[in-house]
Every structure is written in structure tokens, then in C-alpha cells.
Amino acid sequence: MSLLEDVRWLPGTAGLRAELSAGAGGPRRTPEQLAVLALAGEVRRTGEPGSTVPQLLPRTVRELSAGRLRAVPVLGPWTAEFVCLLLEAAMRLSAVVPIAAVDTGSFAAADTPQRALRDFLDTGLPPLWMSAHRTAEVVFVGGLLRGREGALACVLDTAPGHRAQLQPLSHLAAALHDAGMLLVVHAAEAGRARRIVTEAGLRTRTWDDEDSVG
Fold it and tell me: Quick check: is 8 in a domain?
């Protein structure tokens, strides 16, 4: 059985995964467009650009959703503990789609054997296989899988193919160190999402300073 079947998916990512599947082979959408489609069901036409790596644009989500959604910026210090606290707390939101700018050189190899990932969950010893590709990318963080000693985050590619892969939280934290994350949420839950960020030991930005993250 694939470990992906045991992932605790964040609320709202079911819609995201449906959009990723439905969009396969169709016109390429930006991460912000995909997040807005997942949570709001439609995207407003706008001249606002999408994310450029490693910069994320919170205001784009507000524009694309006609104000129905907000993108709460999340900034480090990034550690495995803080990432875990953030994802666990985000499970309590009604819907959330995290968009992250990452350096894939800090990731475990995408083809890391399932046995090695299971051993990591049991022992906390990270797999030795590391990604051979070092590039700046924008990804979705879809869920969390915890074991006795280790925890994995489910990362969903925004590139064509939309591959899902499991990454140790320490690897995800390292990949995030120079950039940041957006929590795309319903406007009514933006304040709650900001509290979740600060209570997890991370930083956010005020609405007047939300033009970019990275």
C-alpha cells in the first residue's frame, strides 16, 4: 500500500487535487489560479501576474477570487518542529491551500524507496537519497503523515504532471529557508490563519506589507 493513502490531507486540498487531475493535459494555470479554483470554484479574469520563483504574490489571490479569499504570508525561521506545528494547526481551518517557494536541492529524491520512508517514520533517521536537481520551484503542501519518530509532508508539484511526493519535515524546512509560504484561506478565516502562523513560531506580514513573500 502506498504511503500516500495514509496522508492526513489538509481541508481544502481535496478540491485542489481534483483541479490538478482535471487540468492535466489542459492549459497550464498558475499556482494561485489553482488554489482559487480549489476553494472558490472560479477565477476572476485579471491582469495580475502569478507567482515568480522564489517570489510569492499574496495580492494575486485576492484579485483572482474577487476578494473572497486571502493569502496569508508565512516566513521563517523554518524548522521541522515549526512546519509540523503549522500543518497540524492548519488542519483546524475549514479550508486551506499552502503554496510554498522551495529549493528542491534540499529535498529527498523523488524516487526514494517507500521502505526508506517507512523506516524514517519509525526511526526518525532521514533517507540518504537526495534530489539530484537544484532549482527554485513553487509547490503545494497538501498534508501530513506522522510516525513514531518521524513525520512527512506531502508535496504536490505545480508543474505539468502534478506529481505527489513525501518529504521529511526537516527537508521541507531546509527547502523553505530562503523563501516562504502562503496559506490561501477564505477571507473570513484570514485572522485565524495569521494566529496559527505566529502560534507555530513563524512570522507573517501585515496587510499593508503583503505585496510579496520571498
Answer: yes
